[in-house]
Design a protein that fits this description.
The chain folds into 2 domains: 8-42, no CATH class; 47-123, no CATH class. It starts with 20 loop residues before the first helix and ends in an 11-residue tail after the last helix. The protein is mainly α. Helix content is 53%, strand content 9%. It is built from 4 helices and 2 strands. It is flat, with a radius of gyration of 30 Å. It has a two-stranded antiparallel ribbon with strand order 1-2.
Length: 134
């Protein structure tokens, strides 16, 4: 027997009944069926599962990169800091992308180091003020 769907009303709305069991079970933005039991039925997220998803995404990106490199093999002229040469377009773009990645890693590492220094400075116990004896 299907249960007819009912909309829940929030306090302050017309027709709000605090004794209504549907209003108590339903979350403000969700459906009446989302409760503790639903959360218990789902498997917990783990680091291994997250790593597996990351590996799958990385493999898909790698396949797309290989396809890109195979389709862009025509040589282009490259000039950098007064040096001139010819290289395949895909290789030039790959080297440029790796350069951007290295710069981002360096800036991120510097910022992490800065934040760690601030944390350590905040944890240091302050020296007790010395009392001058007269």
């Amino acid at each position: 027997m299907p249960v007819p769907s009912r909309t829940t009303r929030q306090p302050g709305q017309t027709g709000y009944d605090p004794a209504d069991p549907i209003a108590e079970v339903a979350s403000p933005g969700g459906s009446a069926g989302t409760g503790r039991q639903d959360r218990l039925d789902r498997p917990a997220r783990t680091r291994t599962g997250s790593a597996w998803v990351g590996i799958c995404v990385g493999a898909l990106v790698l396949v797309a990169l290989v396809v890109f490199m195979l389709q862009n093999t025509e040589p282009v002229d490259v000039t950098f800091l007064g040096m001139t040469g010819t290289a395949p377009l895909a290789l030039v773009l790959l080297v440029a992308g790796l350069g951007v990645g290295v710069v981002a890693l360096v800036v991120g590492a510097l910022r992490i180091g800065q934040l760690r220094r601030r944390l350590r400075a905040g944890r240091r116990p302050t020296a007790a003020p010395s009392r001058s004896t007269l």
